[in-house]
Design brief:
By secondary structure, this protein is an alpha+beta fold. The protein folds into two domains: about 1-30 and about 135-175; about 45-110, no CATH class. The protein is about 45% helix and about 15% strand. Strands 1-4 form a two-stranded antiparallel ribbon. Strands 2-3 form a two-stranded antiparallel sheet. It has a two-stranded antiparallel ribbon with strand order 5-6.
Length: about 180
């Protein structure tokens, strides 16, 4: 892989982390949403990343190391969580023009967890028993996810800056 390929890889990771931060922000913004268009409370969403290209040797070694936690989806390796997966939201399939290496958003999934119940008989969404269903969203967990996405984005940005410095140095050497 050349230096420009490394930039593409870091760029794809930056795009994926930006999307992860947007999903976390949506989770935090809807932490008190008791009624959505589907009628129930908002459900927390998670972002699933996948590799842009499948390296058969790497996939084989990962499968041997962690068992069934690795699956293949049409030539793109994906590390699947060991927890039961909730229903999947629509996502864009991988593009044939994707660069080798890098990462993409494979899916955005809804958390299958049950909503929290709080007693509030005066709330417009209260049931006959006086309980209201609220999303099971912990602001602390969301902040940790946001910090992780921000940190990963910053590290990839630093990698792009370092790659640009290497290219500039190589051009300076070529000038003589």
């Amino acid at each position: 892989m050349n230096l420009f390929g490394l930039m593409e890889t870091s760029g794809s990771a930056m795009q994926a982390e930006r999307m992860r931060a947007e999903v976390v922000a949506a989770n935090m913004a809807n932490a008190e949403t008791t009624r959505t268009a589907t009628g129930g409370p908002y459900h927390r969403q998670h972002v699933i990343f996948a590799a842009n290209q499948n390296d058969p040797a790497f996939l084989k070694s990962m499968t041997g190391a962690i068992g069934t936690g690795v699956s293949s989806d049409g030539g793109n390796a994906m590390i699947a969580p060991t927890l039961a997966m909730p229903p999947l939201l629509p996502f864009a399939p991988p593009s044939p023009a994707e660069p080798p290496g890098g990462v993409r958003i494979a899916q955005v999934v809804e958390d299958p967890g049950a909503p929290l119940r709080r007693f509030d008989p005066g709330h417009p969404d209260a049931g006959p028993d006086g309980y209201v269903q609220y999303p099971d969203i912990n602001p602390l967990t969301e902040m940790v996810d946001l910090m992780g996405a921000t940190r990963a984005y910053g590290l990839n940005s630093s990698a792009v800056q370092a790659e640009k410095g290497m290219i500039t140095s190589a051009l300076d050497i070529a000038k003589g």
